[in-house]
Specification:
With about 500 residues, the protein is α/β, with parallel strands linked by helices. The protein contains 22 helices and 15 strands. The strands form four sheets. It has a six-stranded mixed sheet, with helices on both faces. Strands 8-5-6-7-15 form a five-stranded parallel sheet, sandwiched between helices. The two termini are about 40 Å apart.
Length: about 500
């Protein structure tokens, strides 16, 4: 299988090259040049297969320069019961005969990003060997919370990689900060940057463009790389769990093989829902993909009207991982919907950069409407949804997942479409204790790790072990710097 850029000027790459490069040299996204298909037999075969085997089998269809043996080993490492608190890895929780919640947060950092970031580092490390790259990959991350910790856990102690994470001093929750400050591992570094997420992000972007730094790093045996969600190695592991979930529904006689399902995904950068789209293209019987946003509803507008307009107010919401106005992975969808018209995609992306908006063609709008539905949830509506689900179904969800349930219920009311629906649940409610406690009507919400105990007390459910153990973890990284000092910090951490 070959990988090509959505902007058309990067030639053809192998999977290992695509994963090592992350972004195409022409600024586009590297995308498989064809989509492999799965048959009904595959889905049936999966019913008595472990999650690890399912993962190796699906990924092998896209990564023909990796052996099955390699992929099985990586899947075994990534999705082990040492790291995940359930053997099912990505279990479905049945809420009714037609609503199934796909819990993607049973991994080491309690957010769905673990599903991909436990896998990507191994694919990348092997890609260095396959491409005969002698240098060590130095991964730089600016994070608003979930990605940084998931990347640290994924890359920790992985051969020939170093990972350095910068987070905004004023931009992450107490729990998120503690998760990062206590990170263990011999190849990791964490540092706070004074300011907000934009300060951290623009600082990291500057590092990537700093030729002097790159030269010095090269002499020390390093090259810079990114663990951003535009890397194909992050999208691919996410395709697995949608196929796996469908197979579980067949296994449990909730549906018959071939029955259509809908999939509803709380969306930010469009990576997770894009993976569901690929699963559909591979032949998984998916009818509608329902794209759920929060008040930053740029995708709702786009999927409705075909006009993408990022010139709008940015809101901080209680589902911060979806607070985003430029959904990078959308570019891959446009590439596919335009019949791989890289000139057209380049033009849309140029307009987005220079004018802040673009309007897609009518044929693309028609395709969008046939595959996608969309909607959004306000913070108030998300909180009501958390409270109602807890009251009526004794099921506790986080604010991101609540956005999805709210949008699904609107969708069903609007269309009457009661097709069985898989709802992606992207974070443990314990990761967002304060919002969840608030939604449940609790006053006097505690601070820091005490919040975890408070939510456990109120709901009678234990906090996930990786969060509960934060209380006794040693703080290893406790520095904060101004963004002018990031270069020095990188040199110091690579020491
Ligand atoms: C990253 C994230 C999302 C958004 O996923 P995308 O792939 O960026 O669309 C949703 N929920 C949570 C909890 C996340 O961490």
């Amino acid at each position: 299988m070959r990988y090509i850029s959505t902007r058309g000027n990067s030639g053809e790459l192998t999977a290992a090259q695509a994963i090592m490069q992350g972004l195409a040299p022409d600024g586009g996204l590297l995308t498989p040049d064809s989509v492999p298909t799965i048959s009904g037999k595959t889905i049936v075969d999966f019913t008595d297969m472990s999650y690890q085997k399912r993962a190796a089998s699906i990924m092998g269809l896209y990564l023909d320069d990796y052996t099955q043996e390699e992929l099985l080993r990586y899947a075994g490492n990534a999705y082990s019961t040492e790291k995940f608190d359930t053997e099912a890895i990505a279990p479905l929780h049945k809420l009714s005969d037609s609503v199934f919640c796909l819990e993607l947060w049973h991994g080491p950092t309690c957010a769905f990003k673990d599903m991909a970031l436990q896998m990507l580092p191994q694919l990348l490390s092997a890609a260095l060997v396959k491409n005969q790259e002698q240098k060590t990959a130095c991964i730089l991350v600016a994070t608003s919370g979930d990605t940084g910790k998931a990347a640290l856990e994924g890359f920790k102690n992985v051969d020939r990689t170093r990972i350095l994470v910068f987070y905004p001093k004023d931009g992450v929750s107490d729990i998120q900060e503690l998760q990062m400050k206590t990170q263990e591992g011999k190849n990791v570094g964490v540092c706070a940057v004074v300011g907000n997420f934009d300060d951290a992000q623009s600082g990291v972007k500057k590092l990537f463009n700093d030729n002097d730094l790159k030269k010095r790093l090269s002499q020390m045996g390093y090259f810079l790389s990114s663990a951003n969600s535009i890397n194909w190695g992050r999208v691919l592991p996410q395709i697995v769990y949608y196929i796996s979930a469908y197979s579980d529904l067949v296994r449990d006689s909730e549906i018959h093989l071939g029955d259509p399902v809908n999939i509803c995904v709380p969306t930010g950068n469009f990576g997770n829902i894009l993976a569901a789209y690929y699963a559909k293209c591979m032949g998984l019987p998916v009818a509608k993909l329902i794209c759920a946003s929060n008040r930053n509803n740029v995708l709702t507008d786009f999927l409705t009207t075909g006009k993408y307009n990022r010139k709008r107010t940015f809101y901080n919401t209680i589902s911060p991982s979806m607070d985003i106005l430029i959904s990078s992975n959308l570019e891959r969808l446009l590439f596919d919907f335009s019949g791989k018209d890289s000139a057209l995609v380049s033009e849309y992306m140029r307009k987005l950069r220079t004018e802040g908006e673009y309007q897609v063609s009518d044929p693309i709008i028609d395709k969008m409407h046939s595959v996608f539905a969309s909607g959004y949830s306000t913070d108030e509506e998300a909180k009501e949804t958390i409270a109602r689900m807890y009251r009526e179904q004794s099921y506790l969800i986080d604010p991101h997942t609540a956005d999805a349930f709210k949008v699904l219920s609107d969708y069903r009311r609007r269309t009457g479409d009661m097709t069985p629906c898989i709802v992606a649940s992207t974070a443990s409610p314990f990761k967002f204790c304060d919002s969840v406690l608030d939604a449940l009507g609790i006053k006097d919400i505690k601070k820091g790790t005490a919040m975890l105990e408070q939510l456990a007390e109120v709901t009678g459910r234990p906090a996930p072990a990786p969060l509960a153990s934060l209380k006794t973890k040693k703080v290893i990284f406790d520095q904060s710097i101004t963004k002018e000092h990031m270069v020095d910090k990188v040199m110091e951490m690579l020491g």
